[in-house]
């Protein structure tokens, strides 16, 4: 099966976690896009969604699915999103699609986090995928020095085909940190959360996934 077929398979499997009559949190990225297309088929069963990015909100609205502002919502039954890396215990690196901050906020309000990923995302130790960190632009250089001191190789993410910084939906910039071997993701997330100027770190370990639906050539495997 191709990687897209594996993503499609987990998107279909994730529909069983959608709670009828409730608000669903929706992630960002190519796997989340497959999920949105599946959700559209049962949109009459849900109250609506909260989106983790402008791109996701646009795709949801394009399907005629209601998108609520998080400020108008008190509870989200389930959050469904992809990951760049996930461990067997559900800790993740996210933010390859630059939506880590809103993803973390929406996930924090959700009763359950269901990660949907193709099998290539499962790792024993995270860090091969560069860790995205969203920063306020004025803090960029200071945070990069701090990340280098921690042993990483920080690099400012640029707009595709340009030498200008990529700007997130929140007006932040993204630093991608290569060369980390993340043996204690909870401690690293806690440490990086304390660095002034860091808006959010793409480590989801303090609040990881409750369930991971992993697409493999042997079918969709459920890790809990
Ligand atoms: C976006 C994310 C995505 O979930 C992550 O990058 C995985 O993307 P894809 O499903 O395209 O592989 O964290 O910020």
TrEMBL record:
A Gene Ontology cellular component where this protein is annotated is: cytosol
Q: What is its EC number?
A: 5.3.1.6
Lineage: superkingdom: Bacteria
Q: In which pathway does it act?
A: Carbohydrate degradation; pentose phosphate pathway; D-ribose 5-phosphate from D-ribulose 5-phosphate (non-oxidative stage): step 1/1
Which sites are catalytic? 103 (proton acceptor)
* InterPro entries in UniProt: NagB/RpiA_transferase-like, Ribose5P_isomerase_typA_subgr, Ribose5P_isomerase_type_A
Its catalytic activity?
A: aldehydo-D-ribose 5-phosphate = D-ribulose 5-phosphate
Write out the entry's keywords from A to Z: Isomerase
* Tagged with keyword Endoplasmic reticulum: no
UniProt GO MF annotations: ribose-5-phosphate isomerase activity
Q: Name one GO biological process term.
A: D-ribose metabolic process
Q: So what family is this one in?
A: Belongs to the ribose 5-phosphate isomerase family.
Q: How does it assemble?
A: Homodimer.
Record function comment:
Catalyzes the reversible conversion of ribose-5-phosphate to ribulose 5-phosphate.
Q: What is the recorded name of this protein? A: Ribose-5-phosphate isomerase A
Task: Please report the organism this UniProt entry assigns to the protein.
Answer: Massilia eurypsychrophila
**In the record, what lineage is assigned to the organism producing the protein?**
Bacteria, Pseudomonadati, Pseudomonadota, Betaproteobacteria, Burkholderiales
